[in-house]
Structure formats: C-alpha cells, structure tokens
Design brief:
The complex is a heterodimer of chains A (841) and B (419).
Chain A: H1 3-20, H2 45-48, H3 67-76, E1 91-95, E2 98-99, H4 117-120, E3 123-127, E4 141-145, E5 155-163, E6 169-176, E7 184-195, E8 204-217, E9 222-230, E10 233-236, E11 241-242, H5 243-249, E12 258-261, E13 264-267, E14 270-274, E15 277-285, E16 290-310, H6 334-345, H7 349-352, E17 354-355, H8 356-363, E18 367-370, E19 380-383, E20 387-408, E21 413-434, E22 441-442, H9 446-451, E23 468-469, E24 474-495, E25 499-516, E26 529-530, E27 534-548, E28 553-564, H10 568-571, E29 588-600, E30 604-626, E31 631-654, E32 659-672, E33 677-682, E34 688-694, E35 708-718, E36 722-732, E37 734-735, H11 756-762, E38 766-767, E39 770-783, E40 786-795, E41 804-808, E42 824-827, E43 832-840
Parallel strand pairs in A: 1-4, 12-17
Antiparallel strand pairs in A: 1-2, 3-4, 5-6, 5-43, 6-7, 7-8, 8-9, 8-10, 9-15, 10-14, 11-42, 12-13, 14-16, 15-16, 16-20, 18-19, 20-21, 21-24, 22-23, 24-25, 25-26, 25-27, 27-28, 28-29, 29-30, 30-31, 31-32, 31-33, 32-35, 33-34, 35-36, 36-39, 37-38, 39-40, 40-43, 41-42
Chain B: H1 2-21, E1 39-40, H2 42-48, E2 54-55, E3 61-68, E4 78-82, E5 87-92, E6 105-109, E7 114-118, E8 121-127, E9 133-137, E10 145-147, E11 165-173, E12 191-197, E13 202-207, E14 222-232, E15 235-239, E16 246-250, E17 262-264, E18 277-282, E19 288-290, E20 299-303, E21 312-317, E22 329-338, E23 345-349, E24 362-363, E25 378-379, E26 383-384, E27 394-401, E28 408-418
Parallel strand pairs in B: 1-3, 5-8, 10-11, 13-15
Antiparallel strand pairs in B: 2-7, 3-4, 3-6, 4-5, 6-9, 7-8, 11-12, 11-14, 12-13, 14-15, 14-16, 17-28, 18-21, 19-20, 20-28, 21-27, 22-25, 22-26, 22-28, 23-24, 23-27
The chains are: A mainly beta (841), B mainly beta (419).
C-alpha cells in the first residue's frame, strides 16, 4: 500500500467534497484560456536530446478544454510530467491537416514553430484515442493547428513578454485582415525572443519567428491558401550532471557546458535550428455535404548542435569523472581529494567550467606535419587542432502531399478519410564549426589509429583519406536517412440520441534506408552508398463509444490496436559508420483502451478515467561516449514492451459566481513489460561487444515522467476584468531511468544472492516527492477599440530549488563500485516568471 | 448529482488502491546462490594446502576482513585477509589499488584460485580482484593479536601467526638499523631491519623500496609495533602496513650512538642533490660521478686531464649547515687520488655570498687525513668543527689544475657527526 499516493488523492477528494456543498449555476469557461503557457525548458533538456532534437511537443495541451489535460499542461510539465506516461511520438500534431511529426523521430518538433504563440493558440485538440477527420491520430491524441488566416482574430495584436526562463524578452506582432471583400485573407505573425543569459548559467537564447498565411477564395467551392513559417533559433544549452557537481558548487543548476574566453562566457553546446515550412492548401467544398482539403508541403532546413571535441589530449570537460573529487575518494589519495574538492568548492572557473583560453593556447602550440594530405601525397605543416567545436547536423528535406475528405452521409453519419505521401530525407553529418585558433583538424579515428595495424582503418572516409578539415567542412560521418511513407485512413462517426460512436482504420507503408556519403575505413563494404531498404506495412484500427446516461452524465470508452514501423533512428546499430540494422527488426504493436465517466454541469465538470496501454516490440537505442574506448558505444534493444496502466481524475467546480476550484489527480504504473534483447557495438570496431543479450527489465518503472501527480487550484475572476489564481501541485513516484545493461546476467555474474552488490546493481532509484505552487493573474481593459491585457505567471512561487524531477543511470557502470558512475539528475527551475502585456485592436 | 460525485470519488479511490497494492516484483537475472556448506573459514582454506599447489574448482567462498592493503605501496598485488580463525596472503592478478582497502569485508569466490606455498608462505594465488573479490562492507576492524617475538617462531614448517595481523609491545629497532630508513627508495629494493625485544630476541622487518615510507628514518624509540606476519623459508618477517601502526616513542632499552647529522654519499648519482653546487673559477673542468673500482658505490670525481692537462679552478660547495646546537661537531669523508698536481683543499666559510671568489674561506685541509695516492681510499678522520658551532657553515673542496699537471681526486661519504 502506497500511503503517499493515497495522501495525494485525499487532497483531491477533499477538494471535491468541499466543492459540492456550494450551489451555483453561473456558466463559466474553463480557466485555461487565460493562462499563458510559455515554452518550458527544464534542466533535463539534455537528457531528452543528447542525440539531437527530441524536444517534446509543446503547446499541444495548452488550449485543451479538459480540466485534467489543461492542468497537466500548465502545472505538471515543469516536472517533466507526461500524460499517461506516453512519449510524444504518440501525439500527432498537424497544421491544416498536414502532419508535422518528423518521420524519423516520430515526434513533432516544437522548435519548428517556437515563438508563434499567436498562431498555435488556435488548435483543435483531441485527447487520447479519439475521432478526427484530419488524421488517424495517436493513442495520446492529436492536435490540429488551424493556420488559415481567417482562424486568427481579425486585427492586430502586439505583445511584449518579460521572463527569466529560457529567454528574457519576447516581442510579438500579429496581424490578420480577416476575409476581405476581394476574397483575400492574409495573416502575418512574427516574434523575437532573446536572452543574453537564461535562468541557468551560461545559457542563452536568440530566436526569431515568422508566419505568413494567405488565402484566396476563388469561388464558393474553392479556396487556395499558402502558409509559410519558420523559427530560426540559436540556443546555448544546459547540461545534466551527477549530484556531486551540484553539491560541490552549491548550485543545482550547475552547467558544465560553458567557460570563459577572454573574460566572456561561451557555451560549447549551441543548438542552431531553422527549418522553414511551406504549404499550399486547397479547400474544396464539393457539396454541402462533402468537403475536401488537400495540401502540398515542403520543409527543409538545418538543425545543428555544437559540441567540443578533442584529439590526443585529456578529456577537458570539467564534469568528466576523473576531474571530480570523487575520483580520489579512497585511502591513499586524501591530498588530491582535498585539493580537488577545494578547487571545486571555490568555484574557480578554471576547474568548474571549460577553459577556452587554454584550448586556444594549446591549439596555437601544436605544430604538426600531415603526410599524404587528402590522399594526394602532399604534406602540410601547421597547427593541428587539439580542441575543436564541431556541429552535429541533422538537416531535413521533406515534401509531400496530403488530402482529407469529409462526407455527411446523413444527419447521423459522417464519413471522413484521407491520404498522405511523404518523401523524407535527413542529412546527418558533422561540420567543423570552430578550429579555436588552430589551422586544421585531421579526420581520422583516434582509437582505430591506435588499435589497428592497417592505417586505412582509422580513416573516416576512404574516398578522401587523411582529410585535412577546415572550418565549414563536413567530416567524421556523413549519411542520409531516407523515409518514404504512404498512408491512408478512413473513419465513420455516428451521432444518436443515447449513443455516439466512431470507428476508424489506417494503413501505412513505410520504407526507409540509409545512404552513406563516406566510405568508413573500418566498414568499407557497408558504409558507402545506399543500403538495403527496410519495408514495413502497418495498420491501425480504433473505435469509441459515448453512452449518454443523461445529457450531463456520460460514459465513454475508446480502444485502438495499432502497428507502427520501427523508427529509422533506432533501427541502425551504428548509423554514423555503417548500414547494419538490428536483428529481427519488427513492427511495434500498440493495444490501448480507456474508460471514462464524465459529468458536465454548469458548475461542476469532472472526468474520471482508467486506461490501459501496451506497447510491444519497441526498438530502443542509445549512444554514449565511452571514455576508455574513446568512442561512441551504441546500445540497441529489440523486443522492448511497455505497459501503461492508470487513472486520471479532473474536476472543476464553480464555488461562487467568481471563484472556481479545480482538482486533478493522476496515478499510473508505467513499466517495462518484457525481457528485451540487446546488441552492443562501438563505432570504431568491427567486432560486436555483445549480442543476443537478455535484459531482465520486466516491471522496472519507466523513468520519463513522475507516475503520480495531483493538483488543486483556486481562481478568482472579478466581473471587473481581472483574475487571480494559484495551484498547488504534488508529485510522487518519480523514478530514475534504468540502464538496461545493469539488469543482465553478466552484470551479476560473479555475485551470489547475498552479496550487497546485487541489490545495488538491480534496484531502481526513486527520487523524493515534491510539490510546487504556481500563481497567475491578469487584467484587461477596453479603451475604445483597443484591448490591453496584462498577464503574469509565477511558477514555483516558493522557489523550491531541490526538486529532482528525474534522471537516468549512466550506461557506463562499474559493478564492483556502482557509485563510481552515479546517475545524472536534473532539478526543476526555482521561481520563474513570465509577464506579458499585450495590446490588440 | 451528489451521488454521482461520490460514486466518481469512490471509483477513483478503489482504482488508486488497486493500482498501488498490486506492486509487481522487479525482474531478476539469474543469480547464483551460496549454500552455507560452500562457505569455509580461512583456517580450512589454509588446510587445503598439503604439499602441492591446488587449484580450487568448486564454488567455495571464504569471508574475511582485509587487514593490509596496497595503499602505502609496501604491498603490491598483495592483500592480507583474516577472519576469526586465521589469516592468509592473497596474491592478486592485478593491483586492487583504489578498490579494496584495509577494513573491507570481502567474500572471496575461491573457484579458479590456487592455494599454494612460496618459500613456506602459504598463500591464495591467482586471485582476480575484479572477479574473485566481492566487497561486503567497509570500515570493519580487526584487532591485532598481541604476541611476543618468540610466539612468532616456527612450529614445524610454519609460523603459527603466518598471514595474521599481530602487535608486539616493548620492542625497538636494533642499533645496526638505528640510523637507517625503513628501506631503500633510491634503488627501490626491499631491505631488512631488525626489531628486538627486551629479552634480546629479534625479528626481521622487511620493507619494500616502493613503500611510501621507504625513505623515512626509522622510529628510534621503544614501544608497540603492528604488522602482518609473513615467512621466507625459515625466516619470519614482519610487514608494516602504514607508519601510524608504529608507536616506538618510549625510552630505549639499548642506547645507540648518535646518527650522523648529515651524509652525502653520491649513491643517487647526483652532485647537486641536497643543495650542493659547483663553481668554475677558472676553466670549465667539472666534478662528476663515477663508481669505477669502488664496488659499484658512487663517488664524486674531478680530473683536469682530457688528453692534455687543462688549467682550472673548480669548487664543490656544500649546502649550509647550522651547527649552533651541536656539542662536538666533526666532519669525516673518504678521499682517493692519483697523478701529480696541486693537492685538493678543504675549505670552510661562514659568510658564503653565493660566489666562492667573494666569500671568506678558511683552509682546514690540514685537519684531515688525505689519500696517499694511487686511488687508495682513506678516511679523513674526525675533522673537528668546534670553531664552527654557528649557523651558515659551508664547506667546499677546491680543485686546482694547471696546463702541465693535475691530480684526479675522488671524494665520498661526506658526513657530519655530533660526537
């Protein structure tokens, strides 16, 4: 029996019981419309996107009318809460019906439309398995951004926001003409966001965004639209490290990525993205009953992440384990331990941060003669870089066609369906971003150089051996991932007096392959050119029913069975170096259902839900830098099953005509549900480290989200156009993500059941319960035709800086001393605010 | 409506209880069990050795506490393990430094290890610290057994305390070791010192030249001494774990002569170590190091003959000595020479300026006995320094050669004693 969880549910129950004593019948909207949900960035950023750009979808939930989902979106996301535990690949985001989820990662990338809040506000959101006439959707739901110019409020809106989170300043201008007499409607929006330094030391943000939507009504049946948008963003990022560095520096937001260069802070990890999106839409009202929406789209652009790289020198990262006092925490090294501790505690930036000046100095003193440059036989002498900044790029080119039709068969039956074709390619490569004062970098693998007699083995590209790399050159690896997708779906919805229902199906053909642009010295036979194509046929079926006990009491049930092609991103064992796919690549199988009880009175709205979702045969991969092997090690698992079981409850009660109370509670059990098979390889060796390794992962908790969260809130809304409110949020069942390798037979092979290491290796770390209080307020005025609004959000009002929201076990571990490589953990930001004044006319 | 809210809340509650009460057990990979019968004591482990090495092939385990580790460097790839029955030396396949320490309770998985005897020291060999040693807990203590030197003597082939942590009380190092360091850090060779009790029994203390305290002068008093017991043929030897185990601070039973205040013996093959300098006043002939004809002990040497004789004046200047607290300071050294030339001078100053030509020197050569030539070594005898009981005393050897002649001089064992 888990008393914490019961306690949390008591809070909500109490709120519910006290609420029902009041009687009132004033109709009010849900409160969420007045809340601003700015873009959150937690220190766990790095955890999510070590490999590039897996930011969670944002804005999906903010406009939801459902109490639970809106509360979760507003209050829980800072604690990394995921509704029902689902990964964002289970949410489909579309714009004007065009799917925005990236076919390679499965996720919709927030950075695509960051800063376009005036546009993304107009979303139609479906939670969970649900009917949608635009897309089959995911088990988490779907959301369509209506980017037609007429969807935006006619007029002009100018706003200024001031914050202390990712960015400090935001200005936004949006104008919509509405449908003009010439049949033309135009909407534009643009914004700029900037911060010299964000909440976390050494982070920075500079982003612009633009949006243009034009629609021309050709006649009563046809309209043509164009939408173009993009959000060039440059962001200095923050790290996630072990508790040791936080304790030593006394700063739970310690960021190891930056250091001083000539007295200025410089961040080594800069994300630089700009992926414009263009679409042409055709709206065709074939008849009063039949509507056809078709779109052509093209998106392209860069997504880069810089990082430090080094050659023939010690690991310069301050948080590298050998640079921390704990490396000396043993008898015999007391003096070094004391010295290193003192250096860290004094927060001398030479110790605790990157030392750029030293990188430049070392690069200026490393004269080297490279023979046989680029395979030409010539030689070049110059300063060979010991340290560089490289940018890992993943540039997308995606075009396609989308169509969706609805047909009203009768007053009670609505048919809809659609088709989608997507031709996707991502170019993945490294670019030398900054030589840090040196003259060149040599594109050979340091480890292969040392371990193989054959000098070819160390070459990143045999077509261009001994490549001398200058700034702007591609090097290291260079490959494309191509994904062709064809999808069709159909749906029927019925509306009857007692029962509403829907049923839908979807079929998808996916084909992906790798194109190598370099001939790797270790894998000359399978690194260059097109790989074999991987083809998958998938289908999905869903159905749901609403049973109306009365108009105010509804029971709904939804179910779906979906198969999904494995993601190309996890299918290749070491895509940087070769085209080998994991053995036994399979479709994922998803079985999901929920049962809901919904009450809708003007003054009381509640929803109680139980849900069950099983995802089978996921492919899982992660890549990590192994400092002794001095290369990336790729850890792949197949047959990963996950189980999501739980319940949700949300209630909103109007206590008086001006006071509204909300209560939400969600508790789940999100676990692994199988014994996956692992393959472990390193980038720079032909031999497998391990294969067909059974991982004993069943019943371990998924560590991506707190598994229990609850909230109670009160809001006062004055008839005089101002409001104020606060929410108390409580989180529990927060688990660290496990390292699968620690749950294998070899991890405990020398041990017997009584050895203490068994427990240390196998147990899963649970983080402490914690809570936050969020506050929001706003006021609006109307002066002639002008509206002025002021809004303020304060998150984590009590400035709780000790809330560990999650973390992960390092893939590297030492089984005799499990604390040698402790988990990485991240903290929720302390008190943050977002204040905005907007002016519309 | 009230009813429905209550119903909803009830369902919520029931679901919560259902969810939280059916907590599922974590998956567990196959793990070996250790039946009680497979746990043996160190005493039984030692008894497995009869006359031949024996590889252990069954899944036996032994539990014990590490009594001596590799931190001080006196042990290398060796650990001592002890339980309530006995102790044993573990010979490791790789160093366990930074992993296993004194006070760690470990399980030794014996499969694959070899119980053997080396020169009558019974040991567990072929121990892989990553595979065979499994730490159970840290910070355990085992009290050393208080014994006498005679208790350690062989009974049959073996010392009864072989492999165990012991404590001797009222012992002191013998006068022959009185002025020694624990071992020889220069040549990194192991050396024996001798400990004696008040009855005149003695025992070997053997210390590695790699020990962090190898160059530390021995504790000169009498008191308690904690060490582990090893054996080499019929010699029982004690191994110091760390200097804090020694408390030889009491009044000695046997008084020893004073130790030299200073010795420069050139065994480190350095002229300048300890603050010595050379200066060329004329020419560029210099003092060097050699060991020819000297049983491979090193000395310093100077000669102005490089095919022809070269005119030179070269000084070898000692560091500064403070003799103000001494009673009867004397200097001794060894000298040898051959070939005709100006004789070597022994000089002393109390106002050294850093430049031999501007310092005021007193020639005390006549107080010393010098080599009679033909490279015959001779000791100088005590050169009395009663007139120099003050700070900032420096000595120098002044070598002078001309372009027609010059001796070869060799100096060794420059020593200052307080008689």
């Amino acid at each position: 029996m888990n008393f914490k969880k019961l306690g949390a549910s008591f809070v909500v129950v109490f709120a519910g019981i006290s609420a029902q004593a009041q009687t009132d019948s004033v109709k009010t909207d849900t409160i969420i419309a007045e809340r601003i949900v700015p873009t959150f960035s937690t220190t766990l950023d790095a955890l999510e996107d070590e490999n590039a750009e897996n930011q969670d979808v944002s804005g999906l939930l903010q406009s939801s009318r459902d109490v639970f989902n809106s509360t979760a979106g507003f209050n829980f996301s800072a604690a990394r809460y995921r509704i029902r535990g689902y990964d964002s690949e289970n949410y489909i985001t579309t714009m004007n019906g065009v799917t925005l989820n990236n076919p390679e990662t499965g996720r919709a990338i927030w950075a695509l439309w960051g800063g376009l809040n005036d546009v993304t506000r107009y979303q139609e959101t479906k939670n969970g398995i649900s009917a949608s006439s635009l897309t089959f959707g995911g088990i988490g739901g779907s959301s369509n951004i209506n980017a037609r110019p007429t969807a935006l409020r006619k007029g002009t809106n100018i706003s200024y926001g001031l914050a202390n989170r990712t960015y400090q300043h935001r200005v936004m201008l949006t104008h919509s003409t509405g449908m003009m007499s010439n049949g033309l409607a135009v909407a534009i929006s643009g914004s700029g966001r900037y911060s010299d330094e964000g909440y976390v030391d050494g982070t920075s943000f500079s982003g612009g965004s633009y949006f243009v939507s034009i629609e021309k009504k050709i006649n009563d049946k046809h309209s043509l639209g164009f939408v173009g948008f993009g959000a060039p963003t440059v962001q200095g990022r923050s790290s996630i490290t072990t508790q040791e560095t936080y304790t030593l520096t006394g700063n739970n937001y310690y960021n190891s990525y930056w250091g001083y260069q000539n007295g200025e802070k410089r961040n080594s990890r800069v994300r630089n993205t700009h992926q414009p999106y263009l679409m042409l839409n055709h709206y065709f009202d074939i008849s009063k009953k039949t509507h056809l929406t078709s779109s052509l789209y093209y998106t392209f652009g860069k997504s880069g992440n810089t990082r430090l790289n080094w050659n023939n020198t010690a690991d310069p990262r301050p948080e590298y384990w050998k640079n921390l006092p704990s490396a000396f925490e043993n008898p015999g090294d007391e003096a070094q331990f004391a010295q290193q501790t003192a250096l860290w505690e004094s927060q001398n930036p030479i110790t605790t941060q990157l030392d750029w000046d030293q990188f430049y100095f070392a690069n200026s003193k490393n004269l080297f003669t490279l023979e046989n440059v680029n395979g030409t036989g010539a030689s070049v002498t110059g300063n060979r870089a010991k340290y560089i900044i490289e940018e890992q790029r993943s540039d997308v080119y995606d075009y396609g066609f989308n169509t969706a039709v609805t047909h009203k068969l009768s007053e009670k039956l609505l048919l809809s369906g659609g088709a989608r074709v997507s031709i996707y390619k991502s170019e993945n490569f490294k670019v030398l971003n900054d030589l840090l004062g040196a003259e060149f970098w040599v594109d050979t693998d340091q480890f292969a150089e040392r371990d193989f007699k054959d000098p070819d083995a160390a070459q990143a590209d045999l077509n261009n051996p001994n490549k001398l790399v200058k700034e702007g050159d591609r090097f290291g690896y260079d490959y494309d991932i191509n994904i062709n997708t064809i999808n069709a779906f159909g749906q029927v919805e019925g509306t009857f007096s007692k029962i509403d229902w829907y049923a839908g199906f979807s079929v998808t053909q996916t084909s992906f392959w790798r194109t190598g642009n370099m001939k790797n010295g270790l894998f000359p036979a399978n690194s260059y050119g097109d790989s074999e194509k991987q083809n998958f046929f998938n289908y999905g079926a869903k159905a749901g029913v609403v049973y109306k006990l009365t108009g105010r009491h509804l029971i709904t049930a939804n179910g779906a069975y979906i198969t999904r092609a494995p993601l190309a991103r996890t299918a290749y064992l070491s895509p940087r170096t070769r085209d080998q796919v994991v053995d036994d690549l399979k479709n994922e199988k998803i079985l999901s259902g929920d049962l809901n009880y919904i009450v809708r009175y003007p003054k009381v709205k509640t929803r109680a839900t139980v849900f069950y979702t099983s995802i089978e045969d996921k492919t899982w991969s992660r890549s990590f830098y192994h400092d002794e092997l001095r290369t990336f090690v790729n850890y792949n698992m197949t047959g990963v099953d996950q189980l999501f079981v739980g319940m949700e409850f949300g209630a909103e009660v109007n206590l008086t005509s001006t006071i509204t109370a909300t209560g939400t509670f969600a508790s789940g059990d999100f676990t692994y549900n199988s014994r996956p098979t692992a393959t472990i390889i390193q980038d720079n060796s032909t031999k497998l480290l391990e294969e067909k390794k059974t991982i004993y992962l069943k019943n371990y908790k998924l560590g991506d989200s707190p598994q229990t969260a609850s909230s109670i809130g009160l809001r006062y809304r004055s008839p005089k156009y101002w409001f104020v409110g606060a929410d108390f949020n409580y989180f529990t069942d927060i688990y660290i993500q496990v390292n699968p390798d620690r749950r294998s037979e070899s991890a405990v092979s020398n041990l017997v059941n009584t050895d203490p290491q068994v427990q240390q290796i196998l147990e899963q770390t649970e983080l402490g319960d914690d809570y936050t209080i969020n506050f929001y307020a706003g006021k609006s005025w109307k002066i002639k035709q002008y509206f002025i609004r002021i809004n303020l959000n304060i998150n984590n009002v009590l400035n709780n800086k000790d809330f560990q929201t999650g973390g992960f076990e390092q893939l590297r571990y030492n089984k005799t001393n499990i604390d040698k490589f402790p988990p990485m953990v991240g903290y929720m930001l302390g008190r943050t605010y977002f204040a905005m004044v907007s002016f519309s006319f | 409506m009230k009813m429905t809210i209550k119903n909803t809340l009830f369902i919520l509650f029931a679901t919560t209880i259902f969810l939280t009460s059916c907590k599922k057990d974590l998956d567990i990979p196959p793990i070996s069990e250790l039946p009680l019968g497979n746990i043996i004591t160190i005493d039984s482990l030692r008894n497995i050795y009869t006359a031949f090495d024996s590889t252990i092939t069954s899944d036996l385990s032994v539990y014990g506490i590490i009594t001596a580790d590799e931190v001080s460097g006196n042990l290398y790839k060796n650990l001592y393990l002890q339980d309530e029955t006995n102790g044993i030396l573990l010979k490791l396949k790789a160093s366990s430094n930074k992993t296993f320490f004194e006070g760690d309770k470990v399980r030794v998985a014996l499969k694959g290890t070899i119980i053997s005897s080396y020169k009558d020291m019974i040991q567990l060999d072929n121990v892989d610290p990553e595979k065979n040693l499994i730490k159970q807990s840290e910070g355990n203590t085992i009290a050393p057994k208080v014994v006498t030197i005679t208790d350690l003597a062989l009974v049959g082939f073996y010392s009864p305390y072989q492999g165990q942590l012991i404590q001797l009380n009222d012992v002191e190092f013998m006068c022959s070791d009185f002025c020694s360091t624990y071992s020889d850090p220069v040549n990194q060779s192991s050396e024996n010192r001798y400990l004696t009790d008040t009855l005149g029994n003695s025992i070997i203390v053997r210390t590695s030249g790699y020990a962090s305290f190898a160059g530390t002068p021995i504790q000169q008093g009498k008191g308690s001494f904690v060490a582990v017991v090893s054996q080499y043929n019929s010699d029982v030897q004690l191994t110091i774990r760390k200097l804090s185990d020694l408390s030889l601070t009491g009044l000695r039973k046997n008084a020893c002569p004073n130790c030299p205040l200073y010795v420069k013996n050139f065994e480190d093959q350095s002229i300048t170590s300890g603050g010595w300098t050379t200066q060329n006043v004329v020419g560029n002939i210099n003092w060097g190091i050699d060991n020819i004809g000297s049983n491979s002990t090193y000395y310093t040497k100077i000669s102005n003959y490089t095919g022809t004789n070269i005119a030179c004046e070269t000084w070898l200047v000692s560091p500064s000595f403070d003799l103000s607290a001494t009673a009867n300071p004397v200097l001794t050294f060894q000298s040898a020479y051959k070939f005709n030339g100006t004789s070597l001078k022994l000089m002393v100053t109390t106002n050294y300026t850093g430049d031999v030509t501007t310092s005021t020197w007193v020639d005390i050569s006549s107080s010393a006995t010098w080599s009679a030539g033909n490279f015959a070594w001779i000791t100088s005898g005590n050169v009395t320094l009663l007139s120099y009981k003050q700070p900032n005393v420096r000595f120098a050897y002044k070598y002078v050669g001309t372009n027609v002649d010059g001796s070869t001089w060799e100096i060794d064992d420059f020593t200052i004693n307080d008689l």
